[in-house]
């Protein structure tokens, strides 16, 4: 049994989607970041950086924070979504780090400036929007060559990246310029595990489809 501490954000959905895709039993503990519950002392013992998601594996008592680390841990625990082949494993970790170091931070800035504070910082809006578009372009070129980001297998690199792309309506993109990302996005959106994991904690949230 896994204890999952999360909220309905792209990073939080990485963990819930992974748990659903792996078929691992878990108990949900909501951490309402709108109410600053991530600063609760008990949560900080698990996630010292006060960020969701975090997990505790009751089988061994281990805890994990940082979504990328959680995905790797669960992949290795279950033997799923992280290829055993050394080259494909490397490619998966490359694209996972692409998300962790690029897509997540930059898309997060787009959300802050373009979605929630439009018109307050034009330079920042332009800078982060251009970088988000560049990252979309990197993904589209990659997906012209490969069914999924790392390889032709669905991996934790896709599980990490897809929830950020699922907020595409906030990114001011033109899908006509991103046919390969669109194909990839819709294929993953149709996965039952993704659909279940997307709505954790359950709010009836629907996946936006272009």
TrEMBL record:
Ranges of residues in domain GST C-terminal: 85-210
UniProt cross-references to InterPro entries, sorted A to Z: Glutathione-S-Trfase_C-like, Glutathione-S-Trfase_C_sf, Glutathione_S-Trfase, Glutathione_S-Trfase_N, GST_C, Thioredoxin-like_sf
PROSITE patterns: GST_CTER (PS50405), GST_NTER (PS50404)
Domain GST N-terminal residue range list: 1-82
Pfam families given in the database record: GST_C, GST_N_2
Alphabetical list of PANTHER family matching this protein: DISULFIDE-BOND OXIDOREDUCTASE YGHU, GLUTATHIONE S-TRANSFERASE-RELATED
Listed name of the protein: Glutathione S-transferase N-terminal domain-containing protein
Source species taxonomy: Bacteria, Pseudomonadati, Pseudomonadota, Alphaproteobacteria, Geminicoccales
